[in-house]
Amino acid sequence: MTAQDPAAAPTPLLFEITRGAATEEELAALIAVLGDAYASEEAAATVEEPQVSAWARTQRPLRRPLRRDIPWGRFAG
After folding, report:
1. Is 21 left (phi over 0), alpha (psi -120 to 50) or beta?
2. CB 35 within 8 A of CB 29
3. What pTM does this model have?
4. Long-range contacts of range 45-52, CB-CB < 8 Å, 24 or more positions apart?
5. DSSP string spanning 5-43?
6. Are 22 and 30 in contact (CB under 8 A)?
7. What is the pLDDT of residues 38-56, one digit of tens each?
């Protein structure tokens, strides 16, 4: 399972309070702040798609590259 797999279930974030006793209000505030920070980081991490002009979309190579391994006239004489 990779991070890029869209079918993968998101892994829940786990955190521990190692000192003191947090109240429900403090835990709710912590969750709200962390959730907002995560959402803003996720929004900033999106990559914009490059703009391709109509001219660039219609361009095709003029021909295939020449094969230098085949001699002229297809015979080695």
Report:
1. beta
2. no
3. 0.42
4. none
5. -TTSPPPPP-----SS---HHHHHHHHHHHHHHHHHHHH
6. yes
7. 888 888 887 778 887 877 7
